[in-house]
Specification:
This protein has helices at residues 22-28, 60-64, 93-97, 109-115, 118-135, 191-195, 211-223, 272-279, 294-303, and strands spanning 35-40, 43-49, 52-55, 57-59, 73-78, 81-87, 104-107, 147-150, 155-158, 164-165, 170-179, 182-188, 201-204, 227-238, 243-252, 264-271. By secondary structure, it is an alpha+beta fold. The mean pLDDT is 96.
């Protein structure tokens, strides 16, 4: 087992064999003892305990006692208890608030994932991605007919053309490119530039591409830098909405930057000393992603000469 990063570490047994029995799943989805991870418009319900938080699990019976009949997916078994998940985005705020008790709060999943234990962060990754996939695939992309959830949310079947759909995971390469004592960092237009954060260059793996080919293409497209010696470092589920970040290190074969101004706000070489200060949040001229992101670990591994 390699590095376990935030949003990894999910210990749930996903019950592959049991999911084949739709009658068994139907019973689970009405069992009042089943525990539910609750979302509201993609924010997750947590319990605040002093300065710490933990996921708030509510029994299905307690949710239904408030007059809420939620759409549910089955996550699996953990320590002999069955876990479900739901997003109450279709319900009025007053109805949703009726299930809350003191200290309960819906918070952004990035914030939650940064503060929760690894196993609970992994449960967010699992449940949020699958809930969003089910919500966005109510209709068939081929014939337009409605689809019906199966296997407790692990697949959907079109009621028109009968094609079976499965949740997708989008592979994304994210790479720290180095050239001696310098590394290549960039700011994409949008979120990173608004926060003035520099990060590793990243992009989706295209069809028919290996990881190494995707790294070389994305780095060239975004920075104009040619790379060699691509090495895998670690991976991280990233449930926004359903990506798998594939972290790599690579060496630069060229050093002249010619970045894509349509996609990137800035791309620069930074010296190791600058990066080390930034990792300690002591550099007024450079900010890098926090430890929730795989980019932080790629940068840190290079800066501290772990790799």
């Amino acid at each position: 087992m390699g590095k376990i990063l935030k949003f990894s570490g999910n210990n749930i047994d996903r019950l592959e064999v049991q999911r084949r029995d739709e009658a068994w799943i139907s019973d689970i989805l009405i069992n009042p003892e089943s525990k539910v991870i609750v979302y509201n418009k993609s924010k997750v319900l947590v319990k605040k305990i002093f300065s710490n938080i933990t996921l708030k699990f509510i029994s299905l019976g307690d949710i239904k006692s408030k007059g809420i009949e939620p759409e549910l997916i089955l996550l699996g078994d953990l320590s002999g208890e069955l876990y479900l998940a739901t997003d109450l985005y279709d319900f009025e705020d007053d109805k949703v608030n009726s299930i809350l008790s003191d200290g309960d709060e819906f918070i952004d999943c990035r914030t939650a994932g940064d503060q929760l234990s690894l196993s609970q962060g992994g449960m967010i990754s699992h449940s949020k991605s699958q809930l969003e996939w089910n919500r966005k695939n109510i209709f068939c992309g081929i014939c337009g007919s409605k689809t019906n959830g199966q296997r407790g949310g692990q697949s959907r079947k079109c009621l028109g053309c009968y094609i079976e759909l499965f949740p997708r995971t989008d592979p994304v390469i994210i790479t720290l490119v180095s050239n001696g004592d310098y590394c290549l960092l960039g700011q994409s237009k949008g979120r990173l530039s608004k926060l003035n954060i520099y990060s590793c260059l990243a992009g989706f793996v295209d069809q028919g591409e290996s990881i190494e080919e995707a790294v070389a293409r994305e780095i060239m497209e975004e920075s104009g830098i040619k790379v060699k010696n691509v090495n895998y470092y670690a991976s991280q589920p990233w449930p926004f909405p359903w990506s798998l970040m594939i972290g790599c290190h690579a060496e630069a074969e060229t050093n002249e930057i010619n970045y894509d101004e349509h996609e990137m706000h800035s791309v620069k070489w930074f010296h190791r000393d600058e990066v080390l200060k930034a990792l300690k949040e002591a550099n007024d001229n450079l900010s890098v992603p926090g430890s929730i992101a795989i980019a932080h670990h790629l940068i840190k591994a290079w800066a501290t000469k772990e790799v």
